[in-house]
Task: structure prediction
Amino acid sequence: MLRKTSRKVEKFDDRLQELIDDLFETMRAENGVGLAAPQVGVLKRLFVMNVDAEGDPAQDLVIINPEFLDQEGQQQEIEGCLSLPGLYGYVDRPAQVKIRYQDRTGSWQELEADGLLARCICHESDHLEGILFEDKIIGNLFRYNQDGQAIDVKTGEELELVQHD
Result:
């Protein structure tokens, strides 16, 4: 399911509202900052997020049928995913994005984002295309051990984490 492309949301009905509420509930229960519908087995172009944006308090965002209008710059950080618990890796993403999307009522909106918010938008949008963060990692896929040391998933060797610029 996670490798399939999601379908456009056409109906903004009570079932969709229930799905949105369920996504937020699941995201919070798992301490996530974003969750896409395909991650819960629903192939719809929809994700939810709650991310602190550069000094602004976090707010719930519902992103439906997103379209990228612009992408600029580059940022590279460690990412994980609720669908691949305990796995991490460095991923290169745009530093800023501008998207057009529909909100939970079906109204079209535009959003400009940078930093973690831009990263989350890109990560969750990838889920709508059947792409996982592990497909984009730079370097090693790793886990953290009980001492907080990064351990290479394939070799079991300890890693010294250095940002790959």
